[in-house]
Amino acid sequence: MKAVTWQGRRKISVEEVPDPTIKEPTDIIIKISSTAICGSDLHLYEVMTPFMDKGDVLGHEPMGVVQEIGNLVTSVKVGDRVVIPFNIACGKCYMCDRGLQSQCETTQVRSQGRGAAFFGYSKLYGHVPGGQAEYLRVPHGQYNSILVPSDFGDDRFLFLSDVLPTAWQAVEYANIPEGGSVVIMGLGPIGDMSARISKYRGAGRVIGVDLVPERLVRSKARGIDVIDLSKNEKDLLSIIQDMTDGRGPDAVIDAVGMEAHGSGFEKAIQTSARILPDGPASALIKKAGIDRMDALHKSIDIVRRGGTISIIGVYAGKVDPMPLDTMFDKQIQIRMGQANVKRWAPTLLPLLTTKDPLGTDDFATHHLSLNEAAHAYDIFQKKEDGAIKIVLKP
Ligand SMILES: NC(=O)c1ccc[n+]([C@@H]2O[C@H](COP(=O)([O-])OP(=O)(O)OC[C@H]3O[C@@H](n4cnc5c(N)ncnc54)[C@H](O)[C@@H]3O)[C@@H](O)[C@H]2O)c1
Ligand SMILES: [Zn+2]
Ligand SMILES: [Zn+2]
Questions:
Q1: CB 1, CB 16: distance < 8 Å
Q2: Ligand 1 pocket test: which of 37, 40, 122 has the largest number of ligand atoms within 8 Å of its C-beta?
Q3: What domains sit in the chain, N to C, each tagged with a CATH number?
Q4: Tens digits of per-residue pLDDT, 359-383?
């Protein structure tokens, strides 16, 4: 089959790889009909290269049709239409029982000290072949699949794999009081959807911050107040305070993560880690503070005293510098983590089967063939051609 493979820093190619086969009786195999590219894939594309091997198959946001099932699979049958959660979870362990599927104790990558494995996401997360391909083996597919109806196009349901549950969890963890205020740092797919969900769930004031013109325009068109960071960096705090009774918002969602614009010093460390040979580089990345912290540090300044920061952007540095004096003095609450996809699926599915209040049908800006993956990664990373969310069609 054809699959999107990682070949080196900023090098992606579509290659012929062996078709997947059933290995465990709870596996399923799906024929992929749509598969999206995520901001998390961009971390592998450039920064996390020491954890990648040439030929790794990327992707963790797929959906398609069940092609084959293992002997013990009863939850789906051949021909069913399913979306696959990005985390691989068993559905039976202590963590899964508590709705913490991203910490599944059956699939935890203990050799790397990590939580649940996930698709197409480097040695750190289990080295499992990903879903930007024609077919995908889904370990624990008995649990790790979301059955969706046959009506509507793929885009209605595709984002159940990641964007929707991730943004839902971001808003849940932000703990915005009824009618309260939230600032969302970053209006990529995750921040954009977090803004939509905050509004849908009754936040009184939703403010989005980014620096890419198309992303600002897109959120504004959905009734979000937007601030262009490129023009208001110095006054950001006072602008937001003026919009929130001088106090700052009840909550901030950091939907930027480790590659924030405007973090010059940390960018230099990320770059130097990248040019070291893999062994020392992965050690440096694991031990040092390699994250670009601009968005998180701004979130700490922006949030009101006693407010909540929900960190949904991914960070990976071990000793990132944090202003603990400010965090303690402001009595800031912080929640974070990978999304527990299956936990939120039953809440989200009913929103997708009648109306489309979150606008999933036209959420993707680009539909490209799998063969165009290299171009797709390039424009998504450079934020060119209005690329905000790209769906590949095998
Ligand atoms: N926790 C999870 O389960 C989970 C799931 C999916 C994605 N993510 C993470 O969420 C983050 C966002 O993903 P995405 O798909 O939306 O990707 P993205 O890279 O397209 O979005 C990031 C956005 O942040 C903006 N930005 C950069 N620096 C900024 C700054 N200093 N202040 C404000 N905005 C800034 C960028 O212009 C961009 O629009 C990534 O770190 C990704 O890895 C986490
Ligand atoms: Zn993703
Ligand atoms: Zn589990």
A1: yes
A2: 40
A3: 2-162+339-393 (3.90.180.10), 164-336 (3.40.50.720)
A4: 999 999 999 999 999 999 999 999 9
